[in-house]
Write a structure and sequence with these properties.
The complex is a heterodimer.
Chain A (H helix, E strand, L loop, with lengths): L5 E8 L7 E8 L2 H12 L7 E6 L4 E4 H5 L2 H4 L8 E8 L9 E9 L2 H11 L7 E6 L4 E2 L5 H5 L15 H16 L1
Antiparallel strand pairs in A: 1-2, 1-3, 3-8, 4-7, 5-6, 5-7
Chain B lengths: L1 H24 L8 H29 L3 H6 L10 H4 L5 H22 L5 H29 L3 H18 L9 H6 L6 H18 L20 H15 L8
The chains are: A alpha+beta, B mainly alpha.
Chain lengths: 182, 249
């Protein structure tokens, strides 16, 4: 028996004009606790407007390399009814682009079909990874819970990594030490 | 002197938050899983942060500096309940304690935000959103452990049996507290106790736990402590009190 808790991927929206993007993952016993763990682990930056969690096994994921092999297209099972899928892309390799971000939605009757449609619909230049997520698998915070989940981070600068300028301090210490040694 | 009664009340509120925050901080690096280690450390930090706000108000009322109050009082001078000073025990014990305390804080804060004292009102408003989240988080844990395995259920019941009487000390009024209630500075502890009882009993029962029926004698005076507080203070205060570190306070 696997004694590990499930992994949930966490998506955070930091500004009204920005899409949800993947912040990382958490372990949790169930969806409700996953949302709380996501809040406690990831909502440190002052601005979080919305938080989603998705069981990792609900995500259909393909890298560009994997897409070159067309085998996934034949795995298609068109048995279920059409439903809404969210499309995510990782669009680059630099630190700023490293997040898997929400780019839009498609309707399809399987994750594979959703990916096919996403490949037709969305710009696929410079995409490194595609994630396809059925909308019904997404657990979202209730709007009424937003104040207690997100507002305290506003006045807790000590939780923000920007409050700890370790690098400049280390540089300063090092140069002071070098001056002493000279 | 109403100001004096208020200062005593604020000190007791600050001390409860501070000592509980310190106890919870002992879980840092030891919680059952990484995510909860962070979550529970956040709660511990929040309690210390809330204590800081109350100690600042205490300073406004009495002139006493928070650092002196925290690092240079002996056990008999602390005004926290025995509930919060008990050793952290197992995970079920710490979680049950935090839950019982969170319900108390929530029923208290939802009234303190209407306090006739503007500073009390201001601090309560700031703290309240965070406490709503604490209660949600600990309620979820209590439910999962209470309804979880035989082992988790047994540990939760044991924790509750031990903690219930201690928790009731939160509702023992201080000397002269009547004056503050009459002026609507703080809520009546009798009303808080009823609200607390209703909320805790409902949730604990839904979590498969039995409410203890035999109430032992509830600790009465906040100046009286178990031996655990002195041990905690020894740990907490040793650097501040040690001359060899040459720390200026």
């Amino acid at each position: 028996m696997d004694s590990q808790w499930q992994i949930y991927q966490v998506f955070e929206k930091e500004r009204a004009d920005l899409p949800h993007r993947n912040a990382g993952s958490v372990h949790a016993s169930d969806a409700e606790m996953a949302l709380e763990n996501a809040r406690d682990v990831f909502v440190r930056r002052p601005n979080c407007l919305s938080l989603w969690v998705v069981p990792e096994r609900a995500i259909f994921s393909k890298t560009v390399e994997e897409l070159q092999d067309n085998a996934w297209r034949t795995e298609m099972q068109n048995t279920s009814a059409e439903e809404s899928y969210l499309v995510f892309q990782k669009q680059g390799q630099t630190a700023r682009e490293t997040f898997v971000v929400h780019v839009g939605d498609v309707a399809a009757n399987s994750p594979q079909q959703a990916l096919e449609r996403a490949l037709e619909t969305f710009d696929d230049k410079n995409v490194f990874v595609w994630w396809i997520v059925p909308e019904r698998a997404i657990i979202k915070n209730e709007a009424s819970d937003a104040p207690s989940m997100f507002e305290p981070a506003h006045w807790k600068k000590y939780r923000n990594h920007l409050s700890y300028p370790v690098e400049p301090i280390m540089r300063e210490l090092k140069s002071a030490q070098e001056m002493l040694e000279e | 002197m109403p100001n004096n009664s208020l200062a005593n009340k604020i000190l007791s509120v600050a001390d409860d938050s501070f000592i509980l925050g310190h106890r919870n901080s002992e879980w840092a690096g030891h919680a059952p899983i990484l995510e909860e280690d962070i979550a529970f450390a956040n709660i511990a930090l929040d309690e210390l942060g809330h204590a800081q706000l109350w100690y600042e108000l205490y300073q406004e009322l009495t002139g006493a500096e928070p650092d002196r109050v925290i690092f240079f009082r002996s056990a008999a001078e602390w005004r926290n309940t025995q509930l919060v000073e008990l050793p952290k025990g197992d995970w079920a014990f710490s979680m049950t304690r935090q839950f019982l305390f969170d319900v108390y804080e929530n029923v208290s804060l939802e009234r303190l935000v209407h306090s006739t004292n503007p500073r009390v009102q201001e601090i309560a408003t700031k703290i309240r959103t965070e406490e709503i989240y604490h209660l949600r988080h600990t309620s979820n844990w209590v439910k999962r452990l209470g309804l979880g395995t035989d082992e988790s259920h047994a540990r939760m019941q044991r924790a509750l049996d031990e903690l219930w009487t201690y928790a009731l000390q939160l509702f023992v009024p201080l000397e002269n507290e009547r004056e503050l209630i009459a002026e609507n500075v703080v809520p009546d502890l009798g009303i808080l106790r009823d609200a607390w009882q209703e909320k805790t009993v409902t949730h604990l029962s839904a979590s498969g736990l039995q409410i203890p029926e035999n109430i032992d004698s509830v600790p009465n005076l906040r100046a009286e402590h178990t031996e655990h507080l002195a041990e905690l203070l020894q740990d907490l205060q040793q650097v501040a009190r040690s001359e060899k570190f040459g720390v200026e306070w």
